[in-house]
Here is the input.
Amino acid sequence: MALLVQKYGGTSVGSIERIQAVAAKVAMAHSQGEQMVVTLSAMSGETNRLIALACQLNDQPSAREMDVLVSTGEQVTIALLCLALQKIGVEARSYTGGQVTILTDSVYGKARIQDIDGHRIRADLEAGRVAVVAGFQGVDVDGNITTLGRGGSDTTAVALAAALKADECQIYTDVDGVYTTDPRVVPDARRLDVITFEEMMEMASQGSKVLQIRAVEFAGKYAVPLRVMSSFVDGPGTLITLEDNDQMEKPVVSGIAFNRDEAKLTIRGIPDQPGVAAKVLGSISEANIEIDVIVQNVAKDNSASITFTVHRNDLQQTEDLLRAIAKDLGAEEVNTDSKIAKVSIVGVGMRSHAGVAARMFECLAGEGINIQLITTSEIKIAVVIEERYLELAVRALHAQYELDS
Ligand code: ADP
Ligand code: ASP
Ligand code: MG
Here is the structure.
């Protein structure tokens, strides 16, 4: 008898009919003798709807109240799925994060799971019941409701699978696996049978939102067998594996990720001296703003400039901080640009190949696309370009690395 954790995303529970379809899938696995733990997202669009309601009342809503609000979406779907299961004769019980207990830290809006108490769920499984757990939410030591960041139900699923030592964690979504790139942008993208945790981490961190990055991180750390599959059509999906036994056969580039969520800031005419970069970037990190790409240049007159990117939501706050620092340092100017995008090629095969970057840059040059910033890791090359060229760049690179199906 296997223990399965299944997670169904927003579109998979987006209507009464879809919830009935999920109930039928769960009932089928349950009737075959599997022990079933199911975790759900809110109905598609619901989390955004709740956020928009809050913003109508208060343009700077408190993070604590936002978590109380947005966690309600998942409470609706877990109850509805249990009702649908009970209607077809399957015993099921729903749990909020607080009822499980899924203990997190107190960072509202991006809380991290610290511990999961599995005893109530185990009791259900032993009694032959299906346990249905609200995704995306937890509770801190003081009993405050917390949420895990957008897309956080993926992380709930993987954390439950790790805590319960599940045989597999299955992420059911609206695509039938992880593709070479977002199939909505490149219709010729190919489904991958397997992808390594390392590659999936890079893909997720570079913008492929098919899995939340923390879910991949967790699955790698606790060696949770993880599979992405469709709730709409049957198929094997994509298995995320610890190791790729077939490295020799690996293509240089396995996938292309992109994101439109960043903005670029530049501070010019600062002293080229020890401690200046620390001062500029330190005060931004202290404000809990994550900095992504960073480039420093020194001009002929020995003055320096620093360019870096942050999430677009953090642009205003970062600009305010940077202007204050600029004043302090007597800098010449501060510029910002939010019409940028980042495109990344990812692949463990890069380790054993030379000339991967040159080929990427030539391909973009061939399309007349100017590269503004470059950053690399062992298995990734990312470039920042003008946003309007994003789709062109992704399609050209997808073809360049022979990823088209
Ligand atoms: P869910 O609501 O089920 O969590 P998401 O919208 O979060 O679903 O994730 C699924 C979506 O991720 C797909 O519809 C697809 O557009 C997008 N996506 C982005 N990159 C990829 C990729 N490399 N492979 C598959 N899907 C991707
Ligand atoms: N409902 C949450 C969101 O929209 C969590 C999730 O879907 O995973 O981000
Ligand atoms: Mg998702």
About this structure: Residues 16-31 form the longest helix (16 residues). The mean pLDDT is 95. Residues 9, 151, 154 surround magnesium ion (ligand 3) (CB under 6 Å). The first strand starts at residue 3 and ends at 8.
